[in-house]
Amino acid sequence: MTIVPGQRRGRLWPSLATAALVAATGWTSGCADPEATSGQTPTTPAPYDPAAGATVYPPRDLTAAVPLVVMVPGGSWVSADPSGMAGLAQALSDEGIAVVTVTYRTATDDAFYPLPPQDVACAIAYAAQVATDANVDPAEIVVLGHSVGAQLAALVALQPEEYVADSCEYESVAADRLIGLAGPYDVVAAQGLALNLFGSPPTGPDDWSRGNPVDQADSRPEIPALLIHGLSDALVPVEFTEDFAAALTDGGHEVSAQYPEGVTHASVYSSEVAAEPIAEWLGS
Question: Is residue 156 part of a domain?
Fold first, then answer.
């Protein structure tokens, strides 16, 4: 785990060890052809350690209860490198929000559904424990994902009990809010690419439905959602977010959906695009 000091903070969260930070994230990082499969049969992947790839961005005020945002990167379900989210994490931290960027196992690790969302659930539990150990009181837990990270974040936010793994040593925590940035929320519509999540040959149709946020949109209607999708996204069609926003609304959720002009799949999670609307939404 890495701790990133901020320019305006008086001190760091205490009792946190340091480690190296990993590099580049996004849909195009390790991106597979939509017609391709992972070509891997599920085996036994290496154990997941949520501390290994985590980076902590402490809030500037450690005496107040603040939102804790857990950021989940994209990577086509074949990579999950959180370093590309560093700019947004730092910008939110400078606004007084606690942030932890995390990673999870993917098809590259022979980890297929339900392991990736289980890892995300464990990472959220880990982030909450880090805050508690540092005597920080998170006012609320917010899970934020970009691209396929948004799909995984949505699964865990909507059905947290589904992804509690015996192997996770941290006490499970349910998210209070969901933020999705350009997510392929309908894995059935994603089809070939989603084989990176479900494996090749794919698991049964029940797993596809369980792993499809659109099918779970009526769960936990008390969870509000902020969805942002750039209108210039050439990789994940904006219809994914439009359809998910509609499903969440039908399921009783309070949804704020934003579709900024000129924003691409890679720029939607930049601090210039996402920091202000996220901070405003969390403040509300």
Answer: yes
Hey, is 100 helix, strand or coil? strand
pLDDT at 169: 95
> Is the bond preceding residue 34 a cis peptide, omega within 30 degrees?
no
Domain coverage including residue 116: 24-31+67-283
Q: What tokens were used for 219?
A: 């769960």
The mean pLDDT of the chain is: 85
Helix axes 86-94, 271-283, angle to 10 degrees: 40
In whole angstroms, what is the distance from residue 197 CA to residue 105 CA?
10
Number of structural domains the chain divides into: 1
Report if residue 10 sits inside a domain. Answer: no
Q: What is the pLDDT of residue 4?
A: 63
Mean pLDDT of 188-211: 83
* Residue 54 token pair: 């985590």
Predicted local distance difference test score (pLDDT) of residue 5: 53
Residue 55: inside a domain, yes or no? Answer: no
Any long-range contacts for 165-168 (C-beta under 8 Å, 24+ apart)? 165/118, 165/121, 165/122, 167/47, 167/48, 167/122, 168/48, 168/50, 168/118, 168/121, 168/122, 168/125
Cα-Cα-Cα-Cα dihedral of 283, 279, 100, 218, to 10°? Answer: 70
- Assessment of whether the complete model's pTM goes beyond 0.90: no
In terms of Cα–Cα distance, which of 260, 227, 236, 53 is closest to 145? 227
Query: Average of pLDDT values for 210-220?
Result: 96
CB-count burial class (<10 Å; 0-12, 13-18, 19+) for 183: buried
Query: Does the residue 261 lie in any domain?
Result: yes
Work out the percent of the chain whose per-residue pLDDT is above 90. 72
Rounded to whole angstroms, how far apart are CA atoms 130 and 18? 13
> What is the DSSP annotation of 59-71?
-S-SSS-EEEEEE
CATH number at residue 147: 3.40.50.1820
